[in-house]
Amino acid sequence: MTARALPPAAPAPAAPVSAATSAVVGPPFPRPASWVRPLLSYVRLEVRRTLRDGGYAVMGVVMPVAMYLLFTNLGVGGDADFRGDYAQYSMIGMAAYGALGAALAVGSGVAEDRGRGWLRQLRVTPLHPVQVVAGRALTAGVTVLPAITAVLTAGGLVNGVRLELWQWLAAGLLLWLGTLPFTLLGLGNGYALTGQATGVVSAACMMGLSVIGGLWIPAAAFPHWLREISRWTPTARFGDLGWSVLEHHGPGLGTVSVLAGWLLVFAGYAVLAYRRGARTV
Amino acid sequence: MSHVIHVPGTPRAVRTPGVIATPQVPDLPAARPAPPAVRFSAVHRRFGAVHAIDGVDLEISRGATVALLGRNGAGKSTAIALLLGLDRPDAGEVRLFGGAPQDAVRGGLVGAMLQGGTPIPRVTVREWVGFVAATYPRPMSVAEALALAGIGELAGRRVDRLSGGQAQRLRFALAVAGNPALIVLDEPTAALDVEARRGFWRSMRGYAARGNTVLFSTHYLEEADENADRILVLDRGRTVADGSGEEIRRAVGGTLVSFDLDGRGSAGLRTLPGVTALEVRDDRAVLRSGDPDATVLALAAAGRIRRLAVTPASLEEAFLNLTAHPDADADQSPSPAVTR
User: What is the signed CA dihedral for B261, B266, B270, B273, rounded to 10 degrees?
Assistant: First the structure.
C-alpha cells in the first residue's frame, strides 16, 4: 500500500470559503516540485534516442566531415595561401551545414513520434506542452554539437587550419547559438507535416539553404542575382557568424538582424504548426 | 430518460440500473466529501453529424474499478479522450478529482494507456519507464512499475524489440509508473492472446488493490464482468446501463422461461406478469421475464406448462438486449430495465 494524500483531501482543514471557491476553479492539485527536472529528463531521453540513431551519425557527423575533407583536398587549385583560406572558409561552411542538418532532423523525430502516438502519450503525463517543445529544442542544442566540433576538429587536425584559441571558441559558440532558427524551422516541419513529408521537406530545406547560403560554394562565386538572394538567406548569415570570426571580428549588425528576422519567422511557423498539429496528435 | 445516473453514496447492492432519484445529502461546504475520481455532467461531443457522446452523466468514486463496455463506435474512446483532457466537450463538464482534467493530469493524478501507440525506437524499457516516472511528483521506482506489469526481466531490452504482449505490458507500466490515483486504460487487451490477457488483468487488479481508481474500456463482456466491480454500458454515446455484471444480467436480461406451445398459439403470453419480451421458435415460446416466479405461476394457472424450462439470461444476452434496438426509437429508452 502506498500512502498518498490526494489533493482534495489536503485542503480540507482550510476555511469553508476557500473550499467552496476551490470547487469552482478546481482543487489545488500538487504542482510539480521542479519545472526543470522533468524537462531535462525529457532532453536526456531524446538525446539518447538521437545519438543511437545510425542515420544521425551518418548525416549529422560523417557527411559534413567527409564533404569538408573532399571539397578542400580534391581538385582545389591555387597557391598554398588560397588553399589555406579555402580550408578555413569551408570549415565554417561545412560545420554550419552539419549543424543545419542536425537541427532540421529534430523535426523528422517529432513527426515520427506523432505517428507513433508518443506525443499523445506525453500529453497524458504531467509534462506541460511548453516543456515538450522546449525539450525538443534543447535536444537539438545538444545534437548539433557533434557536427560542429567534428568539422572544426577536422579543420584543425587534418587541414592544418590555425586559429587563435578565442577564434575557435567564438566560432564554435556562435555556430551553436545560430542553429536556433533552424531548430524552430525543423520543429515547424515536424508539427505541420507527416513523417515522410517532413523528411522530404527537411532535406529540401537543407540542400537549398546550404547551396544558396554559400555553405558549400562561396557566394562570391555566384552570379550577381544569386548573390543578392543569398545575402538574405538565414544560412548565409548563419555561416557569416563563423566567417566573421575568421576575420577577427564579431558578426555585423546586418547579419544579426537578418538572423533575428528569420528567428521570428521560424518561431511563428513553429508555434502555428504546433497549435495545428497538437489537435491531430 | 435514457441514461442512468449513478447516485453517489448509494450502497452497491441498492444501486441497480434504472434507479434515478434517491434523496441526496445537501452539498454543504462544511461536510463536503472528497470529490469523486471522475464526474461527467451532461457531457456532449459531436463530430459533424455524429453524436459521439450524447448527454452522459456519470460518477466514479475513488477506489472503484469500472469497465466502460460498448461496441466499436459506441463512444468509448471519445469518452476517454474527454476524460483525459485530450478533447473538450461541446457541452457539459468533465471533472477529475473535482478539477479540470488537464489540471489533474498536470498534477500527476492520472496515468493512461492509450490505444494504438507503438513503442518509440532506440530506448530501453528502463529508460522509457524511468523518464515517464520522472515527470510525476511522487512516482514509484522503475523496478516496482516493471514488477507490477510483470516485465521485470525486460528492463534492459529495447522497447522497439518487444513482442506485442510485452509492449502492451510496457504501456501498462508507463501508465502506473507515476503512481497516479487514477489509471485509464483504453481497450488494454486488444490483440492479446488468452494467456497474456490473464497476466494483464492480474497486473491491473494489483494496481487497483492499492486503493487506486481504474477505468478501462473493452468490448469483451467477460473481461468487464470478471475484472470490474461496476460496468457502464455505453451505446451510441449514452450510458444505457450501470451496475455490476450480475445486476445488469438480472435487470436487463432477466430470466428466460420457455415451454412448448403445443399448437395453442402465443396470444396473451406477452401480457403475463413479469414478461418483458416474447419470442416463438418453432412451436416453442421463449419468454423473457423480470419475475420468473410470477410468470410460471401464471402459466400454470393457464394450464400452459409443457416441457417448461427456466434459465438465467447470459450477460451476453443482456448486452445485446441493451445495445441492439431499432433506429426508429433511438430516443426511446433502449431497454425496459432502464425505464422501469
Answer: -50
Residue A168: strand, helix, or coil: helix
Name chain A contacts of B132, Cβ cutoff 8 Å: 125
Residue B69 and residue B234: Cα distance in Å, rounded? 6
CA distance B261 to chain A (A): 58
- d(CA A109, nearest CA chain B) in Å: 10
Instruction: Enumerate chain A positions whose Cβ falls within 8 A of a Cβ in B.
Output: 1-2, 4, 6-9, 16-17, 19-20, 22-23, 26-27, 29-33, 37-38, 41-42, 44-45, 48-49, 52-53, 113, 116-118, 120-121, 123-128
CB contact under 8 A, A125 and B116: no
ipTM surpasses 0.90: no
Spell out which residues of chain B touch residue A44, defining contact as CB-CB under 8 Å. 131
Count of residues making up chain A: 281
Most A CBs within 10 A among B88, B109, B207, hence the mutation to make, goes to B109
Read off the pLDDT of residues A126-135 as tens digits, 9 standing for 90 and up. 998 889 989 9
Domains of chain B: 38-109+181-249 (3.40.50.300), 254-326 (3.30.70)
Residue spans per domain, chain A: 35-279
> What's the pLDDT score for residue B107?
93
